[in-house]
From TrEMBL:
Pfam families: ABC_tran (PF00005). The lineage of its organism: Bacteria, Bacillati, Bacillota, Bacilli, Bacillales. It comes from the Bacteria. InterPro entries: AAA+_ATPase, ABC_transporter-like_ATP-bd, ABC_transporter-like_CS, P-loop_NTPase. It comes from Gracilibacillus dipsosauri. This is ABC transporter ATP-binding protein. GO terms for molecular function: ATP binding; ATP hydrolysis activity.
Length: 212
């Protein structure tokens, strides 16, 4: 799915070789500042590597139209972004931006229920708690029907019980629809419980080679 060869980004990342398989749940694990978010951002073209190559489905990601790439590879960032308006507006905004058909309230409510969020679609999004915003942002990208989900600490604001329910739902969705998820967590337990494969940043990032 993704193949990285000799990829360098500033003095932050230097990855000699990395293959990320498709249709799997992959966890990126490593200490704070080890480059996990930076790597995710490079996989959907939010950041561009300085050297080397990143192939997505056997084609350099530099050759993709960025909008097309981000339709296939969606990212949930660490800080959930809420736009002015209701929960419904915030769920549908991705579909609106990409000029796709809106979905019915029933589907939105079902998705919120799966994510353990009992809020009205008419509630103001900016009044939600941090954990509620995180789940609305999560639901927003799940509606995008992408093939790869890049999830940067998707459950960091959730209590343990809710975290497990949200992760269970995500895993079920990935397996059912044969998707790929690459997620970052600081919890070893969550990484080991949910990932098919754990990529340890200390194993792949040789940044000291270029910064020394
Ligand atoms: N665009 C950028 N330009 C320069 N430095 C950056 C940029 N983005 C991140 N950094 C730096 O790169 C390093 C890696 O940051 P990154 O956010 O990728 O780490 P992380 O592993 O995701 O950390 P955390 O677990 O704390 O979220 C940090 O030292 C950060 O300050």
């Amino acid at each position: 799915m993704f193949m990285l060869n000799n990829v360098v980004f500033r003095d932050i990342l230097h990855i000699d070789k990395l293959e990320i398989p498709d249709r799997k749940v992959i966890c990126l694990f490593g200490e704070s500042g080890s480059g996990k978010s930076t790597l995710l951002k490079m996989l959907n073209g939010l950041l561009t590597h300085d050297h080397g190559e990143i192939l997505f489905q056997n084609q350099s990601i530099l050759e993709y139209n960025p909008i097309e790439l981000r339709r296939k590879v969606v990212m949930l960032g660490q800080d959930p972004i809420m736009f002015e308006g209701t929960v419904r507006d915030n769920l549908l905004i991705g579909l609106d931006f990409s000029e796709r058909e809106r979905v019915e309230d029933a589907k939105l409510l079902n998705l919120l229920k799966e994510l353990e969020l009992s809020k009205s679609l008419d509630d103001e999004a900016d009044k939600l708690s941090g954990g509620e915003k995180q789940r609305v942002a999560f639901a927003r990208i799940l509606l995008m029907d992408a093939v790869i989900y890049l999830l940067d600490e998707p459950t960091s604001a959730l209590d343990e019980g809710t975290e497990h329910k949200v992760m269970d739902f995500m895993i079920h969705r990935v397996q059912q629809d044969q998707l790929t998820a690459i997620f970052v967590t600081h919890s070893k337990e969550v990484a080991e419980q949910y990932a098919d494969q754990i990529i340890y940043m200390e194993d792949i990032n040789k940044k000291e080679v270029i910064s020394s």
